[in-house]
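Re-run requested by the PI after the first attempt was lost when the workstation crashed. Everything re-entered from the original request form. Ligand of interest: guanosine-5'-monophosphate.
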Amino acid sequence: MNCLEKRILKNGIVKNANVLKVDSFLNHQIDIKLLQEMALEWQYRFKDIEINKILTIESSGIAISAIVASVFNVPLVYAKKEKSQTIEDDFYKASVFSFTHNVENNIIVKRDYLSEDDNILIIDDFLANGCALEGLIEICNQANANIKGIGIAIEKGFQDGGRKIRNIGYRLESLAIIEKMSDKEIIFRK
Ligand code: 5GP
């Protein structure tokens, strides 16, 4: 069992059948030492790929990705949730259904920060149904940027996102894959 899995067992709170709260170490209070260990694990798993940029989505992906970007020594770009209708066309834009807030958001990345010259590692905290990842993939496709890998902290394996993303052919490395969870137990995929 790795350090993230151990920490989930210790401090994760299963809120309902589908939502895991990790506010005490990942999403609100943040354990930087744990993030450093996670970043090193991704560096090891992706040691054969060359990347020049990390891409994530605000807000909970940013802290993890900042540490990963520091370990890989590359810049971090995060997709912003569009606050008002952006009329300028200097942004890539995709629509993402938010699992946690149950609303559709537009996410945007300024064209200046993503291009066909970029080799991208996408990082996010959770993978549920895959909408956030699909939005980030869509943005990379608009920029003709190359997605070299995807790193997820916690994949909920009982939801469909992981299967969809792997089936498209992306290299997806999740540090903890939850097979099933309830308020009594959390079981990880081996
Ligand atoms: P998806 O788009 O794959 O359905 O959901 C992924 C996004 O929703 C992540 O960016 C994450 O912020 C949020 N999310 C999904 N499931 C959970 C969960 O169980 N707990 C928390 N805290 N966030 C989640």
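Saved to the shared folder this time. The chain has a mean pLDDT of 96.
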